[in-house]
Write a structure and sequence with these properties.
Blueprint lengths: L2 H4 L6 E5 H4 L10 H16 L3 E5 L4 H10 L20 E8 L1 E2 L2 E2 L10 H4 L23 H14 L4 E6 L5 E3 L2 E2 L6 H7 L7 E6 L6 E7 L4 H7 L4 H7 L5 E4 L3 H10 L3 E4 L10 H4 L6 H13 L2 E2 L2 H9 L3 H22 L6 H14 L4 E2 L4 E4 L20 E6 L1 E3 L2 E2 L2 E6 L6 H19 L9 H18 L24
Parallel strand pairs: 6-12, 10-11, 12-13
Antiparallel strand pairs: 1-3, 2-3, 4-5, 6-9, 7-8, 9-10, 14-17, 15-16, 16-19, 17-18
Length: about 500
């Protein structure tokens, strides 16, 4: 391994303090083999001069240096290459790549001096050789998250404030909860994937800078024993790169000042609608005087919906986002291909197979509740019972997709339950296939088509194909609309 393979300058560096690798607080005695691997790693790093000195984080000069490094604590180059620390004000760090085979190891850059606080929450940070495929922000670096927040701040007026709330935990029955899924815009700006959190981007009144506040649940050994590890307020600063963090339970007193001083508040989480507002529900169990005071503060402020700004920001995808979308699409497409190669007798079996294969091929979960409909069930747009028998001679329609890094796929395919199409099925299949290929050919920048225009072309092409097959296409029999479809709301 060469020095160039280990050390990449800029956003792809993750700096880890040497002394923390050997701390018993991080690595239990039972992980002796891990300690041995880490010792070997540092020996190799020393041989290749990839250890460097930096001032201790508690030193004021080091704090200023970290600010100059930028969000995430990544370096623009090591200040010096040398051996063990000589004084208490100096610590030795290792430059580790964020791309270890076979997958990227960790996509967020972490301020190194706080790793001892994160070991319980993010053990994969310390064990890349054992858990190299685990990530908590797949493919997206901390610097990209920071850039997204800067892009949002640039759209705000001077002294403007944007407020976003994390999604709630949804309960199926009693204390039985559904898989957690973060609110998309909140995740897009923070990379934070826990409930009961609020992000605030406050633009300066005098220049284009902004302050990123992140209020989260505090660390709690008792609660974490039941619910799993929490990031906590310190990780909000050191991992998720907030400028200011705080306990979500004490957010009211901070909001009074932040919102009270704002020229305009941008949010889609108004407390006036507790049934739909995650932001409001944070206060639903608090004394009514607190909720009333918060409502009065927002009522006095100029409040504007945030959704349109976020939609504009997210219309153009970064290279990293496109890579995530391609991975989700590739994994989902291969899952469909594998499913088509097999014989199925029950809708539920095909459903289970697709959901398994999405994960097996690399996705994190299913993007939505799939539709697996045999025969006439396929005429129901959102048929999700998926519990019928698949009959030979019929077709089966599968509308499903996987999700990766909060980016989703939505694929619909129809194929014969028996190995081959009969003649009418083949004619209809080719009509749809021809329409699809026409539309895909128009999905390029040089064609200058909007999605609405392509949708209209799809209707006309399909209508013409069906007329050619002898169908009566008078009236609006082929007219379609996405109105009322909950899956057409802006998302990834």
């Amino acid at each position: 391994m060469t020095a160039n393979e280990w050390a990449t300058v800029g956003d792809e560096i993750c700096c880890l303090p040497r002394q923390h690798y050997t701390s018993s607080r991080l690595l239990p005695v039972s992980q002796g083999r891990t300690n041995e691997w880490i010792g070997s790693l540092f020996h190799r790093l020393e041989e290749e001069s990839l250890l460097f000195e930096a001032e201790h984080p508690e030193d004021e000069g080091a704090k200023r240096n970290q600010k100059q490094m930028g969000h995430g604590g990544h370096l623009n180059g090591p200040p010096s290459l040398t051996g063990p620390p000589r004084t208490s004000a100096v610590a030795t760090y290792a430059c580790l790549p964020l791309s270890l085979p076979p997958e990227p190891w960790l996509a967020a850059n972490i301020r190194p001096h706080r790793l001892e606080l994160l070991s319980g929450t993010f053990p994969r940070i310390l064990l890349p050789q054992l858990q190299s495929t685990i990530q908590f922000t797949p493919g997206i670096t901390a610097s990209e998250y920071a850039q997204r927040r800067s892009n949002l701040a640039s759209k705000l007026p001077k002294n403007g404030v944007a407020i976003l709330a994390a999604a709630d935990v949804k309960y199926r029955s009693g204390v039985v909860f559904y898989d957690y899924h973060q609110e998309s815009n909140f995740f897009y700006l923070t990379g934070f994937n826990e409930p009961e959190a609020v992000a605030i981007i406050a633009k300066s009144a005098t220049h284009d800078d902004h302050i990123f506040h992140l209020f989260v649940r505090p660390k709690s050994p008792k609660d974490e024993q039941w619910e799993g590890s929490r990031s906590g307020t310190q990780a909000a600063l050191d991992v998720f790169n907030a400028d200011e963090s705080g306990d979500i339970n004490g957010i009211e007193r901070h909001l009074y000042q932040i919102v009270g001083d704002a020229s305009e508040v941008y949010t889609d989480a108004l407390p006036s609608n507790p049934s739909t507002s995650a932001f409001a529900r944070l206060f639903s169990s608090r004394p009514s005087s607190v909720t009333d005071s918060l409502s009065r503060i927002l009522e006095k402020a100029k409040v504007t919906p945030l959704k349109s700004i976020m939609n504009d920001l997210r219309n153009i995808k970064s290279d990293a986002e496109i890579a995530n979308m391609r991975k989700a699409g590739r994994a989902s497409g291969r899952a469909f291909t594998e499913a088509m190669r097999q014989a199925w007798t029950l809708e539920k079996d095909l459903t289970a197979y697709l959901e398994y294969m999405f994960k097996r091929k690399g996705c994190e979960t299913s993007a939505y509740v799939p539709v697996v409909a045999g025969g006439k069930n396929a005429s129901q747009i959102h048929y999700v019972r998926n519990d019928d028998v698949l009959v030979d001679g019929h077709l089966v329609l599968a509308d499903a997709g996987g999700e990766y890094g909060n980016y989703i796929t939505d694929i619909t395919r129809t194929w014969p339950i028996e190995p081959i199409f009969n003649s009418p099925q083949e004619d209809l299949y080719n009509a749809v296939l021809s329409t699809q290929r026409t539309c895909i050919s128009l999905c390029r920048a040089s064609a200058a088509n909007s999605l609405d225009k392509i949708h209209q072309i799809a209707e006309k092409t399909l209508r013409d194909s069906l007329v050619g097959l002898g169908f009566d296409m008078s009236g609006k029999v082929c007219h379609t609309s996405t109105l009322g479809d909950p899956r057409t709301t802006p998302s990834d």
